Structures are given as C-alpha cells and as structure tokens.
Amino acid sequence: MVKISKRFLGCLEQFLCQEPIAAGSNSISMSEDFDKDGMLYRRNGKKWSTVYAVLIGGTFHFYSSEEDSKPKASIDVATYDTNITKENGNFLRNSKDKDSPMIEETNLICFRSEKGKIPEVFSCNDDEEYNGWIAKIKENMGKEQKPPLKKDKKLSRMQRAKKNVAGRASNSALGKKMIRENVPDEVRELIAAIKKIIDLESGNTKKGQEMEEIIYKFGTKIYFLANSGVIKVEELGKIDKPINTACEVYIKCFDIVKYSSGLGFEEDRLKESLLTIMTSAYEIIGVFNDVLGPHLKSRNMAKMRDIILHISHTDRLLRFLTLPNLQNEGTELKWCLLKYLSKHGSVPGSQPIVEH
Question: Most buried of 108, 203, 205, 264 (most Cβ within 10 A)?
C-alpha cells in the first residue's frame, strides 16, 4: 500500500494553520514624489493588457513591464476627458462580441489624443480603485509636468502594486477573460473534462461549475504574482512531476478496467495504485504552500486545496473508472490527460501498473 509521507502531511498541516497575510505587508512607504500608482488595464487595439501606471504631478506615466526603464507613454492629465466614453463608446467594446468582457463605463479612465487618433483608455478593477484614480487626476490637473520614475523606485513600487491587485483582478470579468484566453488548449480541455465528470458523479451541476471558477480565479492570482516577479515560475514548475505522475497512473488504471472487461480486476489493488494520485496531490499542495502561501490569503489556498483533494480522492477516482454512467466522460478524461501529457510530459504505455 502506498503511504503518504510525513513531509506531505506536515505541509498540509502548515497549509491548514496558515493565517492570511495582513493587508499592506511588505509594501514600501509612500514617497512625496508620487501621487498614485497601481496596475490598470489598457485598451490596445481590440485587446486589453495590464500596465503599471504612476501619477506624478501633472503627468500620468504607464509602463508595459517591470523591466522597462522608460514609460511606454507619458500623458498630460489635463487631457483627461469624461465625455469620451459617451461619444466614442463603440471603439471600447463591440456589443456583438459575446466573449468580450463587460467593462463598466464608470470604471474607465480616458485621455484625449491628437485629432484622428484613438483616445488612451484605461480600466480599473472596481469602483473604489476608479474613484481613487479620478480624485487624484482631477486634483493634479494644472500641476507641473513631472519626469518618470527612476528605475529602482519604479520596480519596488510596481511589485507591490501587482501583488495587491492580484486578488481584485481574479474577481473581475476582464481579469478572468485574460486568463481563459491565455490558457493552453490542453489545459482548458482538461479542466472542462474534469468539470463534466464531477458534475455527473456528484449529481450536482453546480459542483463542477464552482470548481472550475475557483481554478480559474486561482490561475489569475498566480498569473499576476508571476508576471510581477513576486514569485518565480520555475518554483511552480515543481508541480509538473506529481501532476504527470497522477495523469499516468489514472490512464493506466483506466486501461486496466477497460481491457479486463469480463475477466474482472482486484479492486483493492486498483485502489492501492490510485493512492499514488493522492500522494501526488499532497505533493502539489506542498508546492503551492511553499510558493504561494506567503502571498495569498489562507481561504483562497484552502479552496484550491479542497479541489485537489476532492478530485484525487481514491474512492471518487474508482467511481470515475467503474460506474457505467460515467464511461463516456471517463474516456474523454483519459484522452484529455493523454493530450496534456503529450505537451507537458511523456505519454505512458498501456502496460498495467498492478497485476490482476
């Protein structure tokens, strides 16, 4: 029988006992040189992208990435215009595009451009953030133009801003849409297949939908933390091995059940193999705890932990493999796992991992 190591149990215990990070922790003190800064969305053609914005005196600077030493553009706040969204609303969002996120006009910050050019448009995650920006922009109208940040100050402030915005972005329509659009097909299809089989196995369609929503929210948080340099993508790469192991074990167990039709199989030995998936689940939780724990609230970490343990539960996996009404969904899940492994691991052979 496969045993769960003490290290994984220790990680889980630490995970469960972890307290939320205090708001504003690890942030640097506000300097008189800066009036306001933070992460915003910027309209770029037909798409939205994240930028780091800094308001200094009468100038609104924004940067494409933390590595940039110079701003992408610097805008005179005197060009701020509340009438742009009403007069030029069509360029903001194509109403026929069903996949386009609903961006509230009240959350848009618009600046006039030269005649004939599209205005510069930025979007905030929520009303509170929007009101803060507008109040400062109006307050700074007429003030002297100021040069952009020095690189060292910009980087430290940008990292703080991106870290703080991650939570709110994961709940915004635009943030979730950005993540879903950038998720690889094999990952998106795998999440959808898991959602479908969870719905049928539980008899509750809301269960799979809730699970899918939490996964994408969690992914959004990871995206912003990684994109800001708060965490390193290489550190999260430690989950690759346990994920691949879990996929390979499930596929081989699936083949055992399928190809032993009429001959029977030993359920206890199959469950013993499926326990390997549970062990991999604890290892994934341990990596999340180490890498993401210091940056995310414990309730968000706990939600993802619960999903991982729910999916990897041995009895549930056995039902996925054996219940007649789940055969189609089980087959679909297997092919999604194979596709995932073809991109991120190695496709396993069909040799059984337990004898029957």
Answer: 108
